[in-house]
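Notes on consecutive records. When two proteins share a document, each keeps its own sequence and its own token line. Never mix them. Below: protein one.
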Amino acid sequence: MIGRSGTSAKRASARWREVAVAAVTGVLVVLAVALTPGVLGGSGGGGETVVQATVTNPLPCTNTGAREGVRVEVDGQRRDATLSACGHNEGEQFAVALPADVGSGPLEVRIAPSTPVDNALLRPIALGLLALSCLAGGLYAWVLLRGPRRRPVLI
């Protein structure tokens, strides 16, 4: 029931403004994340090549910041590189990821992921879950702003 002074109408429009601010914020968050490369499983770095590496200079894991020496083949040439890892045996082979720009200077590689990630379906699902979480947060904010409701009297 609207009071004589029309305060309920003012309060309702103020609440709708608060809900609109939450909705616009949620839309902006989803858009910002969708347009940022490398977020939600996108290929942010991209351009890495996976090659086999052979450990040439193994280090024990007792050293902090251990950087083992490995040998990789880049464009038909064998090159020495460093790997931020420890505990491998000399001659051990595993897959490493080369950066897109190898250059001629010191080469640093990282251990390649064990399975390639197919981002075709990962990004839309993650974006949908983000939008759903924004909606849930907005609904929760609306419930808190709405305040307590009166219980109906049965008598």
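Protein two starts on the next line and is unrelated to protein one.
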Amino acid sequence: MEASPGSSMKKRRRSAGQMQRDAPEGNSILVKHKVKLQQTNVLTASKQQKRKSTKQDHSPSPKMKAKVKKRKSVQDENQCQTEESFSSAASSRISATTSSDSFNGEITTSVTAVKSPKKRKKSKQNLPEPDESWEKAVERARGMPDGALGGADGARGFEGDEEAKEKKKAADKVKKMPLNILQTAAKKLKLGKNVGKTSEQKDKDTKRKSAEDGDKGENKKPKVEEMAKKERKKQRRMQKDNYEMSAKAKDLWNALRRHDLTTEKRLALCTELHSLVKGKALQLIFAHDTSRVIQCLIKYGSAEHKTALFEELREHLLEMTKSKYAKFFVRKLLKYGTKAQRNYVFRSMYGSVRKLIKHKEAAEIIECAYNNYANAQQRAALVEEFYGPSFALFKTAETRTLDDIMKSHPEKRVSVLSNMKEMLSALVDKTVLQYSIIHRIFLEFFNYASPKQRTEMIETVREGIVHMLHTRDGARVGMICLWHGTAKDRKVIVKSFKTFVAKICKEEYGHLVLLALFDVVDDTKLVQKAILDELLKSVHDLAQDSHGRKVLYYLLCARHPLYFHPDIIKVLQQGDGNTTSKKDAAVRRRELLEHVSRPLVQYLVKHSGEIVLNNATILLMVAILTHVKCDPTDAMRAVAEIAAEPFAAGNQQTCHIVEHPAGHLSLKKLIANDASRLKDGETIFFCQILLDVLPKGALKTWAACNRGCFILISLLEVNDAEVTKRVKEELMSVKKSITKLDFKGAQILLTKLTDK
């Protein structure tokens, strides 16, 4: 039977009364709470009366009244039973525990209040009778009235609540049960299925289950998270529309690019591949893998295949130049395409060069086309876009270059240069300044610009000069900036070369910029710190490089005709008349030479054995020993010690410096250099150091070979009396043996020995 809110409240009262009777204070607590309970009931009745008066218009339906009436009769019976039991228990408890007269009045009042329901009704005769059925319905809908849960008769001792708590604890215990216990129970349940089965039936069940699991494993689609990276990548590709065609095309490509294919087999593969990709080349050309397939077809395909691909893709060439992968097709087309196809590629670029040169991918194609495949007319057409819109107005078939325009239309010079300046200022970027087509435009601008325009442009481009030195035009631009720039411009350019000095020295054109820098920069301390110190760290590598040696030669003996071509000297002389340099050229060169002299001598001492036996470094060795501004004795002695090693003519295993093709030339040049040192008043000579280091009898062994004889002749031609005397004294004893030798060197040596 469903309990009403009133019965629940009574149960709480009963439980509270039992707890009070068990308390050590006894009757006093019970009496106090019973009095409070009466007051609470009176207040509750008044509240119920007010609620009834406010809800008179909302009378319940007959069906609801019947339900409430039935529930009320049941609740009244329960209430009577519980109150009678509560009254009898309270009476017995009070009579047994209270004997004091001070509490008689209160006890009598309390007992009278709880003795029977009839007496309690009499105490409430003055109050209006509430509609209990309606109040119970409202109580159930809204909850218990105010004060029902307060006081010492809280809601913790209800039997219903205790049962609910016990059920909840049992459920929580089941939830917290360890997983292994549940698994064990499940296994036992599974084993119970096999009870009563024979061993044959169990084997059949096992085989059937394994077969089902195998079928599930084969047909089960793996999850993406469980797949390897390569498998996920393959699955993504398979979702594309042209996956099968791309896979087959790549297989043909792998077979086509083999080097051992015959011409017939390669042509057959090209035909099959072209039939596969025909009409779909545009879809494949922009992908990183299938783009190579189309490139291979352009390379190995027949003329018909190339023409078909060209016709299919010709309208998209400009877009392809901007693609990371499709741009290589344009490059292959320039290399393997016909002349007409190549010309079409150039025509498609006209009018878009300024935009394409700023694009990372397209700029590479412009540079490749300009440097490798364009003729003079096509190069001029690519460059003329930078001259401005006015250039197109007076351009003719005869005047297509800037030089022609300046000569035929000098009045257009100002407008053309102003347009060029505006466009070039927007191109001063590290990624753009590396292209040769830009270098040409800068050089043409500097050749025709006024001093003011040139100064402004130098200030704009000075920090990017280091990225332009690998081409002829770019190196010329760098030299012009050094020649005509201010002291501040030169300082910025010099500092920008830091960490790139060794690379610049090895550049075919870039090393000329360093030579111009040595000529014009007055701040030699800055040059020594920023350029020379870094250069000397790589002096060994520079000595092995033809362009690097030019830089060392220029520091040792600037513009010497033995080491520099007249055309190079003529180019460098263009900067001699600049207005910025104030220091004397001789003073500037001497300060630089003094800084590098000692390190170069130390390098020669350390690597003398390698240098004297290398034709490429012989002249460098002579230049170091001839022009350094320090004592070269250590370097000369290092070379002499190599020559003092034991020598046996005709020994093929150990080639002595006397018989070495480059070694004997090194000795001859060093000895011949003493003649000029003698004229200059020097006091240190290689001949004297050599004779001091050589063991006794070494000159006699040298006379046994042709090259050794020529070295001895060089010693006699120095015209040093002491050296000539020592050589003749040692060779006079073998003069007769020399007469028996038939090679040319022995005959000349014999005549030198007989001369007085």
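For the record: The two ends are 154 Å apart (CA to CA).
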